[in-house]
Amino acid sequence: METKNATMVTIVAERLLRDRLVEKIRALGAKGFTLTEVQGEGSRGWQAHEFEGPSVKIETLVRAEVAEKIVEAVAKYFEHHAVIVYLTDAKVVRVRKF
Amino acid sequence: METKNATMVTIVAERLLRDRLVEKIRALGAKGFTLTEVQGEGSRGWQAHEFEGPSVKIETLVRAEVAEKIVEAVAKYFEHHAVIVYLTDAKVVRVRKF
Amino acid sequence: METKNATMVTIVAERLLRDRLVEKIRALGAKGFTLTEVQGEGSRGWQAHEFEGPSVKIETLVRAEVAEKIVEAVAKYFEHHAVIVYLTDAKVVRVRKF
Amino acid sequence: MSPAEILATNLLSPVVLAFGLGVAATLVRSDLEFPEPLYQSLSIYLLLAIGLKGGAALSVTPLTVFVGPAAVTVLLGLVTPLTAFAVLRAALRMDRINAGALAAHYGSVSAVTFLAAVSFGEATGVPIEGFMPALVALLEVPAIVVGLLLARGAHARPGEGEGSGSWAHALHEVITGKSILLLVGGVAMGWIAGKERMTPVEPFFVAGFQGALTLFLLEMGLVAARRLRDLKEAGLLLVAFGTLVPVVHGVLGVWAGTVAGLSEGGAAVLGTLVASASYIAAPAAVRIALPEAKPSLYLTASLGITFPFNLVLGIPVYFALASIFGG
Amino acid sequence: MSPAEILATNLLSPVVLAFGLGVAATLVRSDLEFPEPLYQSLSIYLLLAIGLKGGAALSVTPLTVFVGPAAVTVLLGLVTPLTAFAVLRAALRMDRINAGALAAHYGSVSAVTFLAAVSFGEATGVPIEGFMPALVALLEVPAIVVGLLLARGAHARPGEGEGSGSWAHALHEVITGKSILLLVGGVAMGWIAGKERMTPVEPFFVAGFQGALTLFLLEMGLVAARRLRDLKEAGLLLVAFGTLVPVVHGVLGVWAGTVAGLSEGGAAVLGTLVASASYIAAPAAVRIALPEAKPSLYLTASLGITFPFNLVLGIPVYFALASIFGG
Amino acid sequence: MSPAEILATNLLSPVVLAFGLGVAATLVRSDLEFPEPLYQSLSIYLLLAIGLKGGAALSVTPLTVFVGPAAVTVLLGLVTPLTAFAVLRAALRMDRINAGALAAHYGSVSAVTFLAAVSFGEATGVPIEGFMPALVALLEVPAIVVGLLLARGAHARPGEGEGSGSWAHALHEVITGKSILLLVGGVAMGWIAGKERMTPVEPFFVAGFQGALTLFLLEMGLVAARRLRDLKEAGLLLVAFGTLVPVVHGVLGVWAGTVAGLSEGGAAVLGTLVASASYIAAPAAVRIALPEAKPSLYLTASLGITFPFNLVLGIPVYFALASIFGG
Ligand SMILES: Nc1ncnc2c1ncn2[C@@H]1O[C@H](COP(=O)(O)O)[C@@H](O)[C@H]1O
Ligand SMILES: Nc1ncnc2c1ncn2[C@@H]1O[C@H](COP(=O)(O)O)[C@@H](O)[C@H]1O
Ligand SMILES: Nc1ncnc2c1ncn2[C@@H]1O[C@H](COP(=O)(O)O)[C@@H](O)[C@H]1O
Ligand code: NA
Ligand code: NA
Ligand code: NA
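^ inputs. structure came back:
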C-alpha cells in the first residue's frame, strides 16, 4: 500500500491546558487527534497532576504547515505552564484524511 | 550499543476492534505489542468511547515487510470503523527480537 | 519556529522496574520524562500486569549521547525482565531544555 | 394519588434529581467528569445487585407464578422490534440497515430505566414482584437477534470476512456480553444461594443500592446531555419516534403484564421494560453485526431521547396505566 | 472534657489515624498508591453526600434561622483573604501575585477539614446545625474572587490572550468547578427532595460516610506527606503563616458564628471552615487566572502545612474556643 | 453438619459462587473485565477493613490469650517454606531458585483465602477469634524471607548490581509493601482507636464487607481462570504439589492452632492461613530478589491451583479437621 509523509505533532501538557489546546489544534486545521492520560516530570518543580488530575498527551497527525502553526500556538504557553511539543515524521496511507 | 532499524506501526482504533486487531497483528508476524487506552476524535462524528469504553492505541515494532502487511489488514476496517494506522522509523538494539 | 533535532528514547517495561528506570534516566542526564500506563505482550509468556499492575511506557527526549547511555543502562535488564527500548528522531523548539 | 402528585413524586426523587444535576452540569459546561472506571464499577455493581436480588426472589417463587410473565416477556421481545421496524420504515422512510439497528435497541431493554421504575414503585408504595430482574434478562436478547435479522434481510451472510460484521461474533457478544453475564450470573447466584445465604451480602448489595443508583444517574445525566447536541441533526421525526413508540410499547407491556397475572406494580414495571431502549447490549451487538449502521442515530435515539423521556414522564404514565388496567 | 482529653479524642479518631497512616506510608517509602479514579470517586461521593445532607437539613430549617449565619459566612469570605494578603505583604514581604494567590486559598475553604470537624463534633457529642454544608458552599467562592482581584490589582486585564490567564475563564471555572457543582447541586437536590424522600439513599450517603471519609484521609495523608519535601524550601515564615493565620481566622470564625446565633458546635465548625485553606477549587482557579503564581507555594502552604495543622490541632482548639465563647 | 452439608454450605455461599461466575465468564470468553482501579480499590478496602477489625478485637484481648497463637504462627511461617522447599527439591526435582521462590509463596499467606474461611465460619455458625487478622500479618513476612534465603543459598550476594535483584530492596518491598502496610496499619488503627471509636466507620468497613468480598471474588475468578491456560504447561506434578502441600500445611496449622489454645473456628482459620499461598506480597518480593525465577511457575501454582483448591475444598476440610482435633 502506498504511503505518504505526514507530521506527528505531540504535545504533553498539564491537564489545565487540555481543552484550550484541543480547541486550538482543531482551529488550526488538525482533522483529528488522540489523547492519552500521562504523568510526567520536567523543568517545573511541582507535579500538576496532584491537584489537576493526570497530564495529557495530545497527538495529531497533520501536514507540515499545520504542524508549524501548532508549534507556534503551543509556544505561547511555555512561560507559565508545564508543556512541551515535538515533531516526528510519520507515514500514512490515506493522505487526504490528515 | 549498535542499533538497527525497525518500523513502528501505530494503530488507533475504537475499542471494539481491539481483540480483532491484536489477533491480526500476531498472525502477521508481530512478536509483541504495547496497548494504551486513549480517547480520540477523528472524521467520525461520534465518540465510540461513550459506550464501548476507551479507544486503544496499539504499537508494534516490526520489520518493514510485516509493517506493510499490517497496514493492509487494518485498511479493511477503514470504511465502517474509527481507525487510523501510521508508520514511524525506530532504532532497536536486539533486532532479532522484532 | 526553528526546530532542532533530539532523540526520543522510549522504554516499555514491567511496572516493577518503573522507579529504578526513572532514577536511572534522571541520573544519566534526562531533564524530563513522560510516563504512560500500558499493557503489553512480548517474548515473555506471562503478563506482568496481572499482579504488578499495568506496565509503563517511559518516554524521554534527550541528546543523542544521553540516549546512547540510557539504552545501555536499560540493556542490563534484558535478561530477566520484560522490557524493550527503542529510539526515534524528534524535532524540538527549545533545544536547551532537553 | 392524583396524576400531578404521581408526576411530582417522580420528579422529586433523588434518582431523577441526580439525572437533572448531571444534565445541568453539562449545560453550564462544568468540568465535572466521572472517571471511566467509576462508571464501569457502578455498572458492574448495579447489574450484579439486581441479578442477585431477582435470583433470591426467584428461589422462593413457584414456577407456575413465573412461567406466565416469562412467556409474555419473551413474546414482547419478539414483537416490539417488529413494531419499531415497521414505524421506522413506513413513517420515517429509514433504510433497512438503520431501521433494523434501531429496532434491536427498542425491542431490547435498559436496565437503568428498569431500576428507576422499581424505585418509583417503592417511593409510591406499590409492591412489585421480586423476580422482575429475571424478566429483564429474558427481554434483553431476543429483540437484538430479531433486529439484526430485519436489518440483514435476505442478504444475511453468516460469518462474513474481516472489516465487516460477523453474525456469529455478534450473537456471541450479546449472549456473553457483560450486561447479560452479570444479570444472568447474578440471578443464578441468588437463585442457587437462596434468600438466607444472601443475608450477609445484603448491606452491600441491597442497602447501598439506591444511593449507588443515584450516583449512577448523575453520570447518566452527564452522558445523555452530551447527546443532546446531536438532537438538532437527528430531526423532529426521530424525537417523535423516540417518545411515541416507547408509549405504544409501554401500553402493550402493561396490558400484557396484567393479562399474564402480574400485580399492578409488576405490570407497570414490565411496561417500563418494554418501553425502554437498550443503550449498552444493543449498541455493542449492532456495532459488530451492522458496522454500517449509524451509531449517532441509534445512540441519540435511545440515550438522548427515550431514556430521559421514560425517566421523567414515561414511568409515572406506565404506573398510572397499570392502575387503570389492573383496577 | 479537659483540653488533654479533647486533644486525645481527636488524635485517636479513625479519621486522624488514617491520615497518620498515609503520612507514615510515604515516610517509609511504601508502594501504597491510591488509584487516581478512587481519589476522584471518593471526592465526588463526599461532596455530593455532604450537599445532600445539608440540603435535606435546610429544607426543615426556617429561613430566619439560616439567614444570620449565611450573611456572616459571606462576610468572612470577603474579609479573610484581606487579612491573609495583608500578613503576606507586610510580614513575609511576598510579591503581590503570590500573596493574592495565597489569599484566595486561605479565604476559601477545605471541605475535608469541614468534615473532620463534623466528625469530631459527633465523637465528642457536641450537636451541630445540619445546614452547615450550605455555608461551605457560601464560603468557597467569594474569597477566591477577592484573592484574584488583590493579585491583579490595578493591572487587571479582563479576557486576556492565550498563554495567559483569563478572568472570565477563571470565574467560570470556580463557579462551575466540580466541587461547587457537587456541593451546591447536592444541597439543591436534598432541599428539593426533602428529608423523607432521601431515606432510601441514606444507607449509601449517610451510613457509609464516615468510613469513606476515613479512606479518603488515608489518601490525603499520602498526598500531604509528599508536600513535606517542599517544606524546607518553603521556609519557616511560610510555616508560621500556615499555622498562625488559620488560628486568627478560626478565632474570628468562632466568634462571628457565636454572634450570628449558631450553637456551640455550629460556631466551632464555622471557625474550622474559616480557618481552613482550599486545595481544590482555589488552586484550579488561581492556576487559570494567575499562571505566573507559584503552585509550589500555595499548595505546600494549604496542603502541606495548614491542612494537617487544622486536622490535628486546629479543630480541637476551635471547639474549645466555641465552648468558651458560647458559655 | 455432615461432611456433604459442610461442603454444600461452602459451595453455595455467595463468595464461592461469585468466584465460579468469574471462572465461567472467562471460559465463555465474555468481555466482562474489572477495571484495574476497581481491583486495586477493593484490595485496599479489604486489607484495611480486616486490619481495623482485627485491631479493634486485639484492643480487648488480654496479651496472654494472644501470645500463644502468635508464637505458633511465626513458627509456622518459618517451618512451612522448608517443607514446601523440601518437597519441590526432592519430589519435583526443581532447581534451587524456583523451589525457593515457590517456598516463599507457600509459606506466606493469601488474605482473600483467609477472608473466605472467616465467611465460611460465619455461615456455619462457628465462632472465630476476632484477632485473627493480626496473625495474617505475622504469617505474611517470615516465610518470604526464608524462601529467598533458600533460593540464594550460599550464593547470597547482598545488594547486588543493576539488572538483578537486590536483597535489601526485596526486604524493604515486603515490609513496606501495600498489603503489609494496610494490614498492619489497619490493626494499629483499630487497636489505638479501640472498639468504641470505630463505631462510626462500621457501616462502611464492617457491614459492607461481605458484599465487597463477593465482588472481589468475581474478579479473582476472572484472574484465576486466565491462569488455567498455563496448567497444561505446568504439568501434573505441579498440580499435585499445589493441592497436597496445602493439605499438609493445613493439617499442621489446625493442629498447632488447637495446641496453642485457639477455639475450633480459630484453629480452622489458622489452618487455612497456613495452607494458603501468597499471590500478592510474595510475587512482588520474589520478582525483585529472584528475577530469574519463573513467574509462570509460582503464579500458576498459587493463583491457578492452590487458591481455587482451598476456596472450594480446602476450607471445609480444615474446618472438619478442627472439629475433630478440638472435639
Ligand atoms: N525531556 C523530556 N522528555 C519527555 N517528556 C518531557 C520532557 N520534559 C518535559 N516532559 C513532559 O512535559 C511536561 C511538562 O514539562 P515542563 O514544562 O518541563 O515541566 C512534563 O510533565 C513531562 O510530562
Ligand atoms: N489526524 C489525526 N491525528 C491523530 N489521531 C487521529 C487523527 N485522526 C484520527 N485519529 C485517531 O483515530 C481515531 C479514529 O479516527 P476516525 O476513523 O477518523 O474517526 C480517532 O478517534 C483518533 O483517536
Ligand atoms: N515488538 C514489539 N512492539 C511493541 N512493543 C513490544 C514489542 N515487544 C515487546 N513489547 C513491549 O515490551 C514489553 C516487554 O517485552 P518482552 O520483554 O518481550 O516481554 C511487552 O509487554 C510489550 O509491552
Ligand atoms: Na424495549
Ligand atoms: Na478559609
Ligand atoms: Na501458607
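The mean pLDDT of chain B is 91. Chain B has three helices and four strands.
thumbs up if we can close this ticket
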